[in-house]
Structures are given as structure tokens and as C-alpha cells.
Amino acid sequence: xxxxxxxxxxxxxxxxxxxxxxxxxxxxxRLYQAQExxxxxxxxxxxxxxxxxxxxVQAIIxxxxxGNVLIEGQPGLGKTLLVRVMSEALHLxxxxxxxxxxxxxxxxxxxxxxxxDEHGRASLEFRPGPVFANIVLADxxxxxxxKTQSALLEAMQEQSxxxxxxxxxxxxxxxxxxxxxxxxxxxxxxxxxxQLDRFLLKLxxxxxxxxxxxxxxxxxxxxxxxxxxxxMDKATLVSLQELVREIAVAPHVAEHAARLTMATHPDxxxxxxxxxxxxxxGASPRAMQALILAGRAHALLxxxxxxxxxxxxxxxxxxxxxxxxxxxxxxxxxxxxxxxVDQLLATAAKHVRA
Amino acid sequence: MSSDxxxxxxxxxxxxxxxxxxxxxxxxxxWLAIASVTALALHRLPDLVARAHATWxxxxxxxxTMAVLAYGLGGLALVAIVVRSGLRISRRRIDALGxxxxxxxxxxTKDLVATALAVEAGTVAGSADVQQxxxxxxxxxxxxxxxxxxxxxxxxxxxxAAGVLGAAALTIPxxxxxxxxxxxxxxxxxxxxxxxxxxxxxxxxDEETKARIDEAIAELQRHEENPALRRDAREQLAAARDHLxxxxxxxxxxxxxLSRAExxxxxxxxxxxxxxxxxxxxxxxxxxxxxxxxMSKAMEEGQHDTAAAMxxxxxxxxxxxxxxxxxxxxxxxxxRFPPTSSPRPExxxxxTGEDESKSGESKSGESKSGESKSGESKSGExESKRETAEERRERWRKALEDMARxxxxxxxxxSSSEMRKLSEELxxxxxxxxxxxxxxxxxxxxxxxxxRRRHLEELGREREGKGPGEGKGPGEGKGPGEGKGPGEGKGPGEGKGPGEGKGPGEGKGxGEGKGPGEGKGPGEGEGPGGEGASEGEGxxxxxxxxxxxxxxTPYGMGFLPPGSISGERVDVPSGGPPKGAVRIxxxxxxxxxxxxxxxxxxxxxxxAVAEAAVRREEIPLTRRDYIRSYFQAVRPx
Lengths: 354, 637
Fold this sequence. Notes:
The complex is a heterodimer. Chain A has helices at 28-48, 53-64, 79-90, 105-109, 146-158, 193-196, 210-219, 234-244, 251-262, 273-278, 285-301, 309-320, 328-332, 337-353, and strands at residues 69-72, 94-98, 110-116, 122-128, 135-139, 160-163, 166-169, 175-180, 201-204, 248-249, 279-281, 306-307, 325-326. Chain A is an alpha/beta fold. Chain A has 2 domains: 24-103 and 131-246, P-loop containing nucleotide triphosphate hydrolases (Rossmann fold, 3-Layer(aba) Sandwich); 247-354, CATH 1.10.8.80. Chain A has a 5-stranded parallel sheet with strand order 2-5-8-1-9. A two-stranded antiparallel sheet of chain A has the order 3-4. Chain A has a two-stranded antiparallel ribbon with strand order 6-7. In chain A, helix 1 (28-48) crosses helix 2 (53-64). The longest helix of chain A is centred in the N-terminal third of the chain and has 21 residues, at 28-48. The two termini of chain A are 24 Å apart. The relative contact order of chain A is 0.15. Chain B has 3 domains: 4-167, no CATH class; 206-342 and 387-464, no CATH class; 467-637, no CATH class. Chain B has helices at residues 4-51, 63-92, 96-107, 112-121, 128-143, 156-193, 207-224, 231-249, 254-275, 280-284, 288-301, 304-320, 323-336, 353-361, 381-386, 389-408, 412-431, 437-464, 594-615, 621-633, and strands spanning 569-571, 584-586. Chain A binds chain B through residues 25-28, 31, 246-254, 304-310, 352, 354, and chain B through 91, 97, 101, 104, 110-112, 114-119, 123-127, 129-131, 133-134, 136-137.
């Protein structure tokens, strides 16, 4: 996936000092400021994370859409760094949970402890777990047991945890970024498809190019460690998340997203032949929601107040790649879900041209 | 929110659709022009080829089929063009959303105008602020849009193809005329080079041929008047006579007409073999006096088979006749068969059973007295050989007188029996070829055949026989079929020797084979005709003659039983142009099979028609020799 963010918006900067984004009405000026802020965030993250522009954009899309992101990639490609830099740049609370088979749900959600006050009276006090943070990095989520995974997934879905019979909301903004290692799958607990569906996006971390690898060697092994600048505060991020949901979506764009989702089903009339052959179950309606939500975030990232069909195409891979269940033939023929999404988009493009 | 954006986009949409319609109509017109010109060309192609004096390829269908093909293809093309144009128009027509998308693609505004249209329509989800922003942005963007009509896309290739085809359609007739002029010029040049090949005007029938035809006409007419003749046989004779008359009237058609007359008689011969020439039905409608008169006339003219048929009918009537009827018949007999002046037995009592037995005895040769009846004719060959024709006729006449007397006495059985015996004798006489209609028709057929051969030879001589360098070609020689034809010997007929065919180019026939038909035959026979085996070769500077004269069949013309003549196959090397056209000559090799007769019929007919077509100059000059060579190569034995 390649996302192009214009370096200069067609919208002209308003005269005078820009007001805070969160309190402004939705105008050209506010859109411009949002784009500027997001551009700064992206630039700051990319300053620390070499050669992963697409990954950064998709992570920001996930953040703006208030979604949770699953990142899959080999160790050492910068997954943890991405999350840490993002939280630092946004000045958000960040916690990291290394999932292991003996990790318990309480280790994530927190637990009640017996506490004695100065008078010697004992009481139960809730000690929040690492999930109580704005950005939670669930590292190697597939290494924990399903029970523990479920605890985290509940938090992702409900934006709250229930401990000791009491429901405790999680801080806003809240985002889980889980990572998965595609190798060394022995002894792991792969996430069920139903739970995968709860991740808005599934990002794939590509191995960097030769030049990127060279730059990583040059800039990250020195004496001075680079510090991350704070480019956006929490309130601004929340207002941008709200702005994403204000982005205009025309019916024909929504139809396009719906058609794309329908086409992932092998028994759909518009399904391309590879989908019929290699897909056992298609994407859920939640995928269609994810397409539009992520597309809206992409539109805002591009400085537009409206969403286009191109936005859908830009987010289609991370939205759909973990939502289609392949058939056995796909495994035999070494067909990936990315290939299938490519086919979907090619068919959809023909439909748009027609 | 104002709807000025939607109005603008709709206006552009309508303009675009009008242009699409115009373009597609133009394209359809081009295709229709192409289809029309192609169909017309298919239809007119045979005419154009003929106009260019070129040869229409044999593997292509004929003019009618081409016309049907042209109209069929034209109709199909029309339907296809209309359907295709309709589909294209419906596919290319756009709505307002399509136009908005087109503008977005043109301006790079990524669905801005399309979304703004939806905003105007009130179908967009999102805050009013955002919708206003989008709409304002779209209005701003659309002001920079030039008229978003696509460039006029004229169907250049289609129109160009239509133009080229149209120009070709206008030009090709002129080119055909030019080609024809060239072909004519070449043909004239070729004719100048081969001056001897010039087609002479059709010569009139020579006097001898005319005389033969006149004679045949008269003969056929005489046979037509025979009351015992079957109706279809009479019609066949009339048809043959008409053809002969046409041959006299139109020399150009003479060969074909003679061939048709010959064919008609051959057909009659086939039918005669199957069911005879006579029919009792017309005789049964005649009165006794008419029958007696007809029998008398037939006997006088020597038509023994006709007389036999009459006699049979009279015998049948005598058998069942009453006494007054018998007396009436006797009177008619005396009138038609008057008593002769020659001495006859003075005493002749009424016939009894003894007389009858005597009559029977006379079969064995005892009747030397004047009472010898018709039964005497069966007294053996030795006796009949001694009896002259005059004596035989006299004996028959006496028998008839006796019959008259028997009838006067009312002896129906006796007179009937005697009449039957006489009829049998007449019939046998006819079977021997003496006085039979078949024999006569066979001679007539032979005459017609001879007349046609003579005419064709004359034509060939007119055409080929001129010029220096005539020589005897390699085809000269003796082939199968030489020998004495049937009839030679001690038969009552006269046998003719085997004929010699003479090719128009002085090719001497290859025939003269010797056949097993030698022996006693009842009729005339003609030996196989000689045929030039190939073209003769002349001395340098001369042109070879064509060879290939017409011969006669090795047996009778069809009305008489054929003899059995076998021959042998002779391969004669060809020489002279056209090479390979004439290679093998088979002469009378297979004997008198009926298939050969049929084949000969067809060949005679077709070759005559082809020759006539050649003579009428319907065949291009360069192809005439091929046709002649072909018919020469496939001629019958």
C-alpha cells in the first residue's frame, strides 16, 4: 500500500495565528490545521523509524479511527519502536505487555489488593494493570493463552475492564497495538478469526531496503539517543478523532465499500474468480465499517473533508487482509490474502471505470 | 444548499450524451456503408468478373448463390450494426454522477464534485459544516473546469474504410472495363497469331446431310402414321422429327438438334426393347375393314411386323365373329387382297379336319401343291432359302384368299387359325430384320448419326483443316475393332465393313479393331469407327491437326440386338498441345454394354452442346481448345 500525503495542501493557510484545533468549528482552516498537525506527527515518527512510511501512515489511521491495530512482522523491524515513538510524540501514556503463556488476565487488567491504612484497617484497593494506558503495546499477543487474550480483547472492544465486579473505563484515547511474529509459531495460540476481526487494521512490517538498513546503522548506534518531540497533545488527538467521523461520505463511495466487502464472499455474484476459489469465508459488515472509517481517516490525513473511492483502496489491504478466511486451495497454491485483495481492487476499478 | 452545481453538471451531461449519440450514429453509418458496399460487391462480383472477361473460379459459388449470400450477409450485418450501436450508446451514455466523476478524474479532485452533488441531493452523511466545506470547494473547483466534453472522437478508421470501399466500388467497374479491354486486346493479338484458329461462320448443312435428314424425317413421319404404334413411341418419333426439322431450319443449332434427335431415337430404342413398339389397344378400336386395309398396306410396304400385329387382331376377331361378321370380313378381304392371276388349285373343297391335319403336315415340308399355307414357311431353312421374296408374298396372298373363302363358309376357327399362322410367319420375317419397324428406325438412327458426324466433320474441317503442316499424327494406326461387322456373310441383310474414322486434322482413326461380331447377323452392322488417337504432328511451321474423328459404334444403333464385339485398350502417346489433355484412347474395348450406350448418349448430347457453345463464341478463345480436348478425351468407345 502506498499512501501519498500532499506536502502542501491545496487549501491556503489562514491568516493570523492558528487557533487550537479542538475548539474550532469545522472549516477550511480547521481542516488545514488538522492536516498540519498530522503531517507533523507523521514526520516526527518517521524521523525515528526509518523506511516504514506506509506503516507509520497506517498506524496513524488506526489511531485517528480509534481502532486497534495488529502488527505482524519479524523481530527487530521496529514494531515496538513505532508504538513508543507514537506515544511520546502524542504525549500519551504508553505501556507494553510482553505476552507469555503464563500471563494471566489480571496481569493485564489489574487486580484488587488488600491494603492497610494508617489505622490498620484493611480494604481492597484496585491496582490498574498495564491496560490502563492510552497506547498499549501487546507484544507477541499470540504467545498468551486464549483466556488472557480474551481479557485484552474485551478491553479493546468495550474500552473498559471489569475487575471485582466493577466496571472501570479505560483512559481516552485508548489504542491497543498488538504484535505477532509470523515465525516460531510452535507453542503459540493464534488468534481466532472472530477476534482478529476486532482489530481495525492488520499491518505488515516489511523488511527495510538496503539504503534504509544503512541509515539505521548510521543513526541508531551512536552515543546520543534521539529524543522524540511532542507534536500533539491528547486533546488535539481526540478532536481529530472526532473530526474523522465528520468527514463527508457520498452514497456512491459507501456503495463502493459495500460492493468491495460483498465481493470478498465466494458466493457473491460480483466475486472475482480467485475469491471464489481461494476464500472460504468473506469479510463481515464490520469490515465495511472499517473500510469507511479508515478511509475517512485517510481522507483527513490527506487534508480532505470528503472521502473518495481512492481512500477505500488505500486502506483496503490492512482492513481486509485479516478478515478473509482462506480455503485449503489458497494454501496449496501459496496465495496470500494480499493477492486476493489485489484482485478485488482490480475488479472494483473496472467497475468504477465502467 | 443551492443546486447550481447539479444544474451545471446535468447540462454537461446532456451535451456529452448528444455527442456520444452523434459519434455512434456516425460510426454506425460508416459500418453500414462498409456492409452495403461489401454486400453489393459480393452480389456484383460475378458480373464484374464477366465484365473483365475473366474466368469465374469453379470453387466459388455461382451468381445466384452469391446474390443470396450477399443479401444474407448484408441483412446480418445490418442487424449486428444496429444492435452494436445500441449497446455502445447505452454503455457510453453517462448520468450526472458519471459526469461528476469524469470531472473529478480530469481535475484530480478525487470525488469532490461527485460528493458535492450528493451534498446538494442531501444524501451525504456528515456534519453540515463539512458538507458546506465540500460544496464550496466543489464550486470553486468547477469554475476552473473547462467544458468537460471529451474530444470529438470521429470513427476515423471506420469512415476511412468506408471511403476506401466506396472509392473501390466506384473504381472497380472502370477497372473491370479496362481489364476487359486488355483481355480483348490480348485475345485479338492471340487470334492474329493463330489466324487459323479464327472461328469461321457456321457453314450451312451440305446437300448430302440435308438429304439424309429429309429422308429421316420422311421415314419417321411414315412410322408415326402406323396405327399399331404405341402412343409414347409416336410422341418420341414426333420429338425426334421436330429436332431434325430444327436442324434443317437453324444450321447453328444443327449439331445439337441432330444430337437430340439421335438421343430421342435411342431412348425409344431402349423402351422398345422393354415393351415393344406396338400396342394392341389402338388396333382393338379399329373396324375390321380398317384393319384389313391397314394390314394390306403394311404387307405391300413390307412392314411385316405391323402386318403381323394386324393379323393377330384379325385372328382374334375371327375367332369370336358371327357368321354375318365373317362374311363381311371375307368381303373386305376380297376387296383388299384381290385374287392373283397366277394359277391356283382349281379344286378346293370345304375344309375339314383332314384338311387341317394336312395343313399341319405342310409344316413339315410336304406342301408342294397350291394349297400350301402360311405354315409352309416353317418348313425348314433349306426350303425358305429356296423361296424368293416374290414367291413368299404370293404364298401369303393365296393364304389370305383361302381365309376369305373359309370365312364365307363361316368357318371361324379355321380362318382364325390360318390368320394366326400367317401372323407368326410375318412376325418371324420381321424378326429377321426384314420389314420391321425396328429395323427401319435403326437405319434412320444410323442416318441421323451419319448426318451429324458428317456435319461435325464439316465444322471441324472448316475450323481445323486449313493451314499448312497437316500431317499424320502418331495416332494413326489400327486399333481394336477391326473386322467384319455383323451382317456380313450369308445373312439376309447387308453387312458393312468396319468404318474408318477420320479426324478433322487428318488424324487417321485408331480403330478398325477386329471383333467377335463376325458371323451371321441379321442386320447391318457397322464396325467401330476409327478415331485419331491424338493430334497429328505436322512438319515444322505447320500446326498439328486435332485428330479424333467420330466413329460409329461397333454394333447396331440400338433397335437391333447388338453383336458381341470385344476389343483391346490401346494407349497412344499424346503429342502437341494441349499436353496431357489427350493421353489414352480406348476403342470399343468393353463390348456392347448398355452402360456404354447411355454414356455415349450423354457424351453426344453434351459434346454437341459444348461444340455449339464454342461456335457461338460464348467460350473465351483461350479455353476453346481445352473444351474440345476434354470431350475428345472422354468420348465413348
